[in-house]
């Protein structure tokens, strides 16, 4: 097993870890928001989806580079 | 990973797959918008309703980011960006053409070494946004335009923006300016690229084993494609508005 495989695996794993923590925080606050004010659900859903897209960027960049390293492209 | 055919011209390397992908997406966007805006009536129905909804949606983005006068100016740009990226993202989920090459083709830049690495598969059609060069070109164009618009509006204000509120903030502003196009391009590319790679990996395994995850992931890819097109457009408008916003 080469070190590139290990490095790619670690990059993908930490990307997934970060995405899990970030999305968990986002959606826990989203649920807090609709528990406090149920009529704001529609508005909050749109906002949290935009937040999801912005949060997902960093882990997904890490995962994409992890894939490139794993398959030995860079 | 699939290889892509590349052509060398004037010392530059052109990716044939990406050129096909970009042209096809642009043509589809043109066709959609052309067909949707025929026979306009005062009482809209069907396709005209959809187009009006789309324009309303985009003008919502520009309206919240920019001033009223500038918002209508950038509406068509934002609509084009959104539709092009949306179509490009969704094309990769729906259509992926892969051919197997039997030997090296020097004219298309396919070497025996690369073929061995890619297990003889040669990609002819995939999402153009899954290539970093395409997204860097789009984000770079927006970066250059935003600075150009800022200088054109008021050169003094533009330069003052770098030393606001204190002069020692200059390095932070410079890093901020440079990281904007980088993350703008990487965000779109990484999302679409990671999605396509997972589809390719799931496609390799037997269907009875990966059928359900494949369809689940393709559904998620459609969602991600829509969200990323929206976010790219919003961020483009934010970056432009930061430069052209009045005092």
TrEMBL record, chain A:
Membrane topology qualifier: Multi-pass membrane protein
Cellular component GO terms held in the UniProt record: plasma membrane; proton-transporting ATP synthase complex; proton-transporting two-sector ATPase complex, proton-transporting domain
Principal subcellular localization: membrane
Pfam families xref list: ATP-synt_C
SUPFAM superfamilies: F1F0 ATP synthase subunit C
Top-rank taxon, per record: Bacteria
InterPro entries registered for this protein in UniProt: ATP_synth_csu_bac/chlpt, ATP_synth_F0_csu, ATP_synth_F0_csu_DDCD_BS, ATP_synth_F0_csu_sf, ATPase_proteolipid_c-like_dom, F/V-ATP_Csub_sf
Entry's Gene Ontology molecular function annotations: lipid binding; proton-transporting ATP synthase activity, rotational mechanism
PROSITE patterns: ATPASE_C
Gene3D superfamilies: F1F0 ATP synthase subunit C
Statement: the UniProt record of this protein carries the keyword Nucleotide-binding: no
Membrane-crossing residue ranges in chain numbering: 49-73
Compartments where located: Cell membrane
Site residues (Reversibly protonated during proton transport), renumbered to this chain: 56
Keywords noted in UniProt: ATP synthesis, Cell membrane, CF(0), Hydrogen ion transport, Ion transport, Lipid-binding, Membrane, Transmembrane, Transmembrane helix, Transport
HAMAP family registered for this protein in UniProt: ATP_synth_c_bact
Free-text function comment from the UniProt entry: Key component of the F(0) channel; it plays a direct role in translocation across the membrane. A homomeric c-ring of between 10-14 subunits forms the central stalk rotor element with the F(1) delta and epsilon subunits. F(1)F(0) ATP synthase produces ATP from ADP in the presence of a proton or sodium gradient. F-type ATPases consist of two structural domains, F(1) containing the extramembraneous catalytic core and F(0) containing the membrane proton channel, linked together by a central stalk and a peripheral stalk. During catalysis, ATP synthesis in the catalytic domain of F(1) is coupled via a rotary mechanism of the central stalk subunits to proton translocation.
Family: Belongs to the ATPase C chain family.
Record-given protein name: ATP synthase subunit c
UniProtKB/TrEMBL annotation, chain B:
Main localization (coarse): membrane
Annotated GO CC locations: plasma membrane; proton-transporting ATP synthase complex
TM spans (from-to): 16-37, 74-99, 132-151, 188-209, 215-240
Gene Ontology molecular function, alphabetical: proton-transporting ATP synthase activity, rotational mechanism
Subcellular location(s) of the protein: Cell membrane; Membrane
Keywords: ATP synthesis, Cell membrane, CF(0), Hydrogen ion transport, Ion transport, Membrane, Transmembrane, Transmembrane helix, Transport
Statement: the UniProt record of this protein carries the keyword Transferase: no
InterPro entries: ATP_syn_F0_a_bact/chloroplast, ATP_synth_F0_asu, ATP_synth_F0_asu_AS, F0_ATP_A_sf
Keyword Cell membrane: yes
GO biological process: proton motive force-driven plasma membrane ATP synthesis
Xref: PROSITE patterns: ATPASE_A
Membrane topology note: Multi-pass membrane protein
Family: Belongs to the ATPase A chain family.
Biological role: Key component of the proton channel; it plays a direct role in the translocation of protons across the membrane.
Protein name per the record: ATP synthase subunit a
Record organism: Sporolactobacillus shoreae
């Amino acid at each position: 097993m080469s070190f590139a495989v290990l490095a790619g695996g670690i990059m993908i794993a930490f990307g997934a870890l970060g995405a899990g923590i970030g999305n968990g925080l986002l959606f826990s606050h989203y649920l807090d928001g609709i528990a406090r004010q149920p009529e704001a659900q529609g508005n909050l859903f749109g906002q949290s989806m935009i937040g999801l897209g912005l949060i997902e960027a960093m882990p997904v960049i890490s995962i994409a580079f992890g894939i490139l390293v794993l398959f030995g492209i860079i | 990973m699939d290889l892509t055919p590349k052509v060398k011209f004037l010392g530059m390397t052109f990716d044939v797959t990406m050129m096909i992908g970009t042209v096809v997406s642009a043509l589809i966007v043109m066709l959609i918008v052309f067909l949707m805006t025929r026979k306009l009536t005062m009482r809209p129905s069907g396709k005209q309703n959809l187009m009006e909804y789309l324009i309303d949606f985009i003008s919502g983005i520009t309206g919240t980011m920019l001033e009223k006068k500038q918002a209508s100016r950038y509406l068509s740009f934002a609509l084009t960006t959104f539709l092009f990226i949306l179509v490009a993202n969704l094309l990769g989920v729906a259509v992926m053409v892969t051919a197997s090459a039997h030997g090296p083709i020097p004219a298309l830049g396919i070497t025996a070494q690369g073929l061995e690495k890619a297990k003889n598969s040669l990609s002819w059609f995939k999402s153009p946004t899954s290539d970093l060069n395409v997204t860097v070109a789009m984000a770079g164009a927006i970066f250059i335009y935003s600075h150009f618009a800022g200088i054109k509006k008021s050169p003094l204000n533009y330069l003052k923006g770098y030393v606001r509120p204190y002069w020692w903030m200059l390095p932070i502003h410079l890093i901020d300016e440079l990281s904007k196009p980088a993350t703008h391009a990487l965000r779109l590319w990484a999302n679409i690229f990671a999605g396509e790679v997972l589809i390719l990996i799931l496609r390799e395994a037997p269907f009875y084993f990966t059928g359900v995850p494949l369809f689940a992931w393709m559904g998620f890819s459609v969602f991600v494609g829509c969200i990323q097109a929206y976010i790219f457009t919003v961020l483009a408008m934010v970056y432009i508005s930061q430069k052209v916003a009045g005092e």
